[in-house]
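Structure representation.

___
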Amino acid sequence: MSRWMSFDYGTKHTGIAVTDPLKLIASALDTVHTQDLFDFISKYLEQESVERFVVGEPLHPDGQPIQPIYGHVLGFKRKLAKLYPDIEVVFQDESHSSIEAREIIQMSGGKKKLKDKHYIDQVSAALILQQHMEKEGI
């Protein structure tokens, strides 16, 4: 059984989340420096099987791309597809994922973690993945 892996891409740091092998639960995995992202992915793929990459697509509420980050995210998506041609790469609208992540962290009593951008990025990636799973009917 293969997992799905999602990314809340940023120019400095990227949040990463994965499903369990049965694709029942999306869980925050890590936040890495974006410059180290492909090394992280390669090492992860040595240990785990991934069948789909889900990349958060930065869109305004009206559906228009958020510039200039959209160009960076599109480049990341294309590089993923080129480096890992056997793994499907899809976009998932990430509108409000960071806001929702902050709300979830606050509701869970993690006030200290609200200041931790790395943790927020991970939770955002998990939300992106959960939304994609729901969209796919999983």
About this structure: The longest helix spans residues 117-135. The mean pLDDT is 88. The two ends are 15 Å apart (CA to CA). The CA atoms of residues 103 and 109 lie 10 Å apart.
